[in-house]
Amino acid sequence: MRPLVATIDLAAIRHNYAVAKRCAPGRQAFAVVKANAYGHGVREVVGALFELADGFAVACLEEAVEVRALHGDARILLLEGCFEAAEYQLAAQLGLDLVLQGEQQAADFLAAKLSRPLKVWLKLDSGMHRLGFSAPALRAWHGRLQGAMQVAELNLISHFACADERGHELTEQQLEAFLDVLDLDFAQRSLANSAAILTIPAAHMDWLRPGIMLYGATPFAELGAAELGLVPAMTLTAQLIACRDVAVGESVGYGASWRAARPSRIGTVSCGYADGYPRHAPSGTPLLVRGQRVALAGRVSMDMLTVDLTDLPDAQVGDEVQLWGTQLPVDEVAQAAGTLGYELLSKVTQRVPRRYLGAC
Ligand SMILES: Cc1ncc(COP(=O)(O)O)c(C=O)c1O
């Protein structure tokens, strides 16, 4: 069997959900489980949070169908709303919490004949300019939706663009824009993603939407997950499958991009970009062999990558290699590769078997 596995600690996810809730006592929280729970496996994550989570949030109806099959009565928030008019019937059958983020969606929704009224989240474009209504349009739609037979509850939602950059002026503006429409009658309000849950109490409102923090990674460049009290959920582990000595001046890997500046020992690891390890990670990106830090050497291949073991002379074929996880924060690998923990976690591919710890 190929020695590569993603070990998912479900107890860590429960712990991280509790951290989010502790940041905002008395508020409720939709656990964001879109994109296969950021790569961790939606079935297992929903199972782990079954009793604990107040609700779940997903990106599309297909994901909502999956979560509803796993949890018969949880609140499930459809973050981008429906993509076609025909979807509203199914959204009603599933009893979803539905975002309305634009004119067409809102018009289609009001034209739909539904088997039951839905909880609706009217989305304000508070400054990110990706989805949502301007404040005047939101006021107009509020008037049309209030009392409509399709609406069981009328709520307000918006999303931050820069909450991960502490003190960013746009965050202040977005919060003000949100507060500005609170003279309208909304049953519930939701604004905070992980970064805002952790650092902006004024944005907590009624419902939190923790995503990345559930999985034990940080949304911040300058504040690590451990400092935030988060526990990494995914550990990606491979093995050394070959070792060799390389003379000064010899190259390693595709493109011969890495050359030995000293007599070197090179290890080959059973993980590559087809497993989700970032192909663009440069030489020097950290990995752990026998719990010791070593550096990526040369280009990442589809199924393998190579590391410099020169300073770890005892390393040998069969040794465990941690790509990221409990001993090496995914955020550190992401930073070295010029990306985010979000991307690395959600891109671990199907061919990497998941092994679960801490099931309830
Ligand atoms: C609308 C919305 N809310 C909440 C989240 C969760 O964000 P985070 O993973 O930063 O906590 C996302 C994630 O992209 C989102 O799109």
The major sheet is characterized as: 8 strands, parallel
**Total count of domains:** 2
Number of strands: 18
Radius of gyration from the alpha-carbon trace, in angstroms? 23 Å
Bound molecules: pyridoxal-5'-phosphate
Tally of helical segments: 11
Per the CATH scheme, the topology name of the largest domain is: TIM Barrel
Tertiary shape? elongated
Helix content: 25-40%
- In the CATH hierarchy, what is the class of the largest domain? Alpha Beta
The rounded distance between the terminal residues' Cα atoms is 28 Å
User: Regions with pLDDT < 50 over 5+ consecutive residues?
Assistant: none
Structural class: alpha/beta
Describe this structure in words.
This protein is α/β, with parallel strands linked by helices and 360 residues long. It has helices at 10-23, 34-38, 42-48, 61-70, 87-94, 103-111, 135-145, 169-180, 194-199, 330-336, 341-346, and strands spanning 5-9, 28-32, 55-58, 75-78, 97-100, 118-123, 151-157, 189-190, 207-208, 234-246, 251-252, 258-259, 264-269, 286-289, 292-296, 305-308, 320-324, 354-357. The strands form 3 sheets. An 8-stranded parallel β-sheet has the order 8-7-6-5-4-3-2-9. The chain has a 6-stranded antiparallel beta barrel with strand order 10-13-16-15-14-17. β5, α6 and β6 form a beta-alpha-beta unit. The radius of gyration is 23 Å and the shape is elongated. The protein starts with a strand and ends with a strand. The relative contact order is 0.15. The mean pLDDT is 98. It binds pyridoxal-5'-phosphate. Pyridoxal-5'-phosphate binds next to α9.
